[in-house]
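stage 2 :: seqdesign
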């Protein structure tokens, strides 16, 4: 396949956002989007390994709520000039 025939984008796979720093993740994905010409696909999930979550300081029972909070923070970082509170 030639380079000109490929019309795909760049992607993150599934980022375990409950185990990542939200500000760094927002910056990294925004940078990837910039260099890919706006074709980035960002996938985020909660993960499945309870032991791994605990090792990263995440309580498995609250990971869904935490994921929602972090996704909202990333959206705010990407869309507001001065995000109110992007990270707790």
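stage 2 :: out
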């Amino acid at each position: 396949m030639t380079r000109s025939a490929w019309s795909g984008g760049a992607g993150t796979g599934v980022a375990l956002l409950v185990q990542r720093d939200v500000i760094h993740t927002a910056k990294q994905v925004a940078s990837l989007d910039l260099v890919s010409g706006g074709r980035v696909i960002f996938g985020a999930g909660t993960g499945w390994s309870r032991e791994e979550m605990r090792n990263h300081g995440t309580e498995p029972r609250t990971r869904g709520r935490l994921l929602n909070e972090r996704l909202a923070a990333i959206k705010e970082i990407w869309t507001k000039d001065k995000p109110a509170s992007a990270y707790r």
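stage 3 :: structure notes
- The chain has one domain: 10-79.
- Helices lie at 22-35, 50-55, 63-79.
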